[in-house]
Amino acid sequence: MIARFEELDWQETRMGELILRRRIDPTTGDLIYEVSLNDDFLMSSQFTVAEEELATLGLAATERVDLDVLVGGLGLGYTAATALRDRRVRKLDVIDALPAVIGWHERELLPMSVQLVRDPRTTLVHDDFFAVMRRTPEREDARYDVILLDVDHSPRHILDPSHADLYTVAGLESLARRLNDRGVFALWSDDPPDDDFLAVLSSVFDESTAHVVAFDNRLTGGTSSNTVYVATRP
């Protein structure tokens, strides 16, 4: 029998105390998986609409076939799993800076784990996404058709100071060098659309759009929303 509240993993990481827990929703009886970092609530399987839309909107923005996709931030795996449902995806690399998170999926602890780790298109990579984006790609096969990013709360509310440079013109230009022609960069944000960040995106990418993704929030009894930015490389 599953306890009403269960801590599945606790680890001290370079970014602080990381906790994975599982609980039973008293209203629906559903199993809810939650992740926190240093008492900062990161994500929950109770609300995954925007994470899934990150992949859906990002992949919909390209007409290319045989897609090579990079996901920054593995988390609970909903963005990556949604990307795999697109039959055009031939390769999916997922980068996460925390080996504990990769380990959760390799141990198949989470609802999306089996879909991810048993799909031959998937490669889970322990690395710093932001550091990878700063490096100049040495080979043509290091480029992607779509890059999906879900790590920070938003471009203004970041988890680590080292992430800040990505959201500048120079940082986004470096990321764009990882994209093939007409490649797509999509970003999840917990904040409403940010006109200043859109202006930065537009200075680097050919087309930039902020999509508001609304979803029912049973905790508040109302509607909540996130933002998904989608930008296309010239």
Would you identify the CATH H-level superfamily? Vaccinia Virus protein VP39
CATH architecture: 3-Layer(aba) Sandwich
- State the helical fraction: 10-25%
Our estimate of the beta-strand percent is 35-45%
Largest sheet: 7 strands, mixed
**Sheet with the most strands: spatial strand order:** 7-6-5-8-9-11-10
The tally of structural domains comes to 1
Q: How many strand segments?
A: 11
* Cα shape: globular
Euclidean distance between termini CA atoms: 54 Å
Q: Topology as H/E string?
A: EEEEHEHEHHEHEHEHEE
What class do helices, strands and sheet pairing give?
Answer: alpha/beta
> Tell me, what is the CATH class?
Alpha Beta
- Helix tally equals 7
Describe this structure in words.
The chain has 234 residues and is α/β, with parallel strands linked by helices. It has one domain: Rossmann fold. Helix content is 24%, strand content 38%. The strands form 2 sheets. Strands 7-6-5-8-9-11-10 form a 7-stranded mixed β-sheet. A 4-stranded antiparallel β-sheet has the order 1-2-3-4, with no helix packed on it. A hairpin with a 4-residue loop joins β10 and β11. The longest helix is centred in the first third of the chain and has 12 residues, at 49-60. The termini are far apart.
